[in-house]
Specification:
Largest sheet: 7 strands, parallel
Radius of gyration: 22 Å
Oligomer: single chain
Order of helices and strands: EHEHEHEHEHHEHEEHEHEHEEH
Number of domains: 2
Number of helices: 11
CATH topology of the largest domain: Rossmann fold
Helix content: 25-40%
């Protein structure tokens, strides 16, 4: 028996990893080669597909309603905010992701941004390049062992950040995650309310998914609760931070520094208002990246498709029915 899997878009050199997983299974790839941009494009290519794989192209209700025999939709990502999961569930189409890739990379990147902020690495690099050989502009710099790290959400990546942060000897590690039922299994960390974390943490690292509940979680109100000496890091989703409120807080001197790997609108960053601040670091949504993580992601996505088509039960099935 043969199955057709349509891959709408991807940013990888080849599909060799997927081909390896599908070898001998009867699963055949239809590569859209960048031609899937609109809803109509996806419908045209995927109407008769048995499986649909996507990276950035949104899979909307309209697309899903036109999929005549699709059994599973898998995204090259941890987050699933670009897929209408409710519509897929109504059509009894499985949705799967890869929640266990790039954990090392994102946790490393979050810690790298924390260190760069606290030690004011970017600021000093710019000064030296401009002929200023002095640390005076960096004053004050605090010891990490005198600082409290706060983690908003405590999934795979945040747990890895916490474990790695122990080596730096933070004074305390605070965690806020309403979905962790029993924090006693992590006795080295203090599970607290969001208000307490905002008020007490010197460094706040955000690791939540984007949901209706978490959109603009960092806003004028929550920013006002943070210490003026605190640092904010976001390596999760751009929609978690209200950037207009963040810009206002920075202009009012309410934060010591910010590091973002994600933005609300990543399609056009020209003249972004955050660029005006010397105490802001922005990287181009690259925390996930390493040569190893790309191969891992492609392989694991293909494995989800293979499991769904051959057994009907992908291991990362998120909308079980």
């Amino acid at each position: 028996m043969f199955y057709e899997v349509v891959i709408t878009d991807y940013h990888y050199p080849t599909l060799a990893e997927e081909q390896k997983v599908f070898a001998g299974t009867g699963i055949q790839i239809v590569d859209c080669n960048g031609k899937c941009v609109s809803e109509d494009d996806v419908i045209r290519y995927a109407r008769h597909a048995d499986a649909l794989v996507t990276q950035f192209v949104p899979i909307t209700r309209r697309i899903i309603e036109h999929l005549e025999q699709c059994k599973v939709i898998v995204r090259y990502a941890i987050g699933l905010d670009s897929i209408d999961i409710q519509a897929a569930t109504e059509r009894r189409i499985m949705v799967a992701n890869v929640p266990d890739y790039c954990i090392s990379e994102v946790s490393d990147h979050a810690l790298a941004l924390i260190l760069a902020l606290v030690r004011k690495i970017s600021l000093m690099d710019r000064d030296v390049r401009n002929g200023v050989w002095s640390y005076k502009k960096a004053v004050p710099v605090r010891r990490l062992s005198d600082m409290t790290l706060g983690l908003i959400a405590f999934g795979n990546i945040a747990r890895r950040v916490a474990a790695k942060a122990e080596a730096f000897g933070f004074k305390r590690v605070l965690v806020h995650d309403p979905y962790v039922s029993d924090g006693r299994q992590y006795p080295r960390y203090d599970f607290v309310s969001l208000d307490t974390l905002l008020e007490q943490a010197d460094i706040i690292s955000v690791h939540a998914p984007t949901t209706a509940e978490t959109k603009h979680l960092i806003n004028r109100q929550t920013l006002s609760q943070m210490k003026t000496s605190s640092f904010l890091v976001n390596t999760s989703r751009g929609a978690l931070v209200n950037e207009a409120d963040l810009v206002a807080a920075l202009r009012e001197g309410k934060l010591a520094g910010v590091a973002l790997d994600v933005l609300e609108n990543e399609k056009d960053v020209t003249n972004h208002p955050l660029f005006e601040f010397a105490n802001v670091i922005i990287t181009p949504h690259m925390a996930w990246y390493s040569t190893g993580s790309i191969a891992e992601l492609q392989r694991k996505v293909a494995e989800q498709v293979k499991q769904a088509l051959l057994t009907g039960k992908p291991s990362n099935w998120v909308n079980k029915f």
